[in-house]
Amino acid sequence: MTIRRIDRLCQLLNQQLLDGDLKPGDKLPSERQLAVHFETSRPLVREALQQLKGLGVIESRQGGGTFVCQNYAEPAGSPLSSLLKQSQDPLRLNAELLEYRITIESRCAALAAERATVDDLQRLDLAYQHLRKTHQQWDLELEAQADARFHLAIAAASHNRVFLQTLQGLFGLLKNNVITNIGGLSSHPDIRARLMGQHARLFEAIHQRNPESARAAIEAHLDYVKEFTEQLSRNRQRLIGKVDP
Length: 245
What we know:
By secondary structure, the protein is mainly α. The protein folds into two domains: 2-68, Orthogonal Bundle (Arc Repressor Mutant, subunit A), CATH 1.10.10.10; 79-239, Four Helix Bundle (Hemerythrin (Met), subunit A), CATH 1.20.120. Helices cover 75% and strands 3% of the residues. It contains eleven helices and two strands. A two-stranded antiparallel ribbon has the order 1-2. Strand 1 and strand 2 form a beta hairpin. The relative contact order is 0.12.
């Protein structure tokens, strides 16, 4: 039970990072304040903070408190960060990133269907409802954030901290990429509706605790995103004369 409560605290703190309540460089509240806020004990808060330090999310500064690492969203000198900055072929890189996501997120979805607690399902429901709301508002940046939050809620429900941390870092690096993809979809209401339907099937499969359906739903969703964004990119390049019809 203690381990689960510690993991829950880590997830809550990570969620504040994802929602923008905490940003790289921000100072965290004291252990006492966190214990009061999350209605738990200081020893549990201390252990959760130690886990986040081990994952490179936060750091202690002597005499200064605990801070979100400056390089949390984009690890300095990381191979992926360098790849994103130096890529001369955005179309190919986008496809490769989506292939990577399919590999990781299909396993996350299956594990979430098997392992999700009642609290996990409640958080997933909130994330899904928020995604639906931003989708209706047509705010590209908010929708991109909500999309990432929904996928990360699934990763959190997998109860695999390595998967969760990996995807958090990835979505931090890919924020502009996600917004660009959604921007390309914004003029295609039928496509956007289809994507929401795919999210709905994924959401339902996890709630029904069907690992195979969850795996199939996320793979179908990301395969579709990959196919459609590649088509959008080819169309843009054709319009500027870079690709023959």
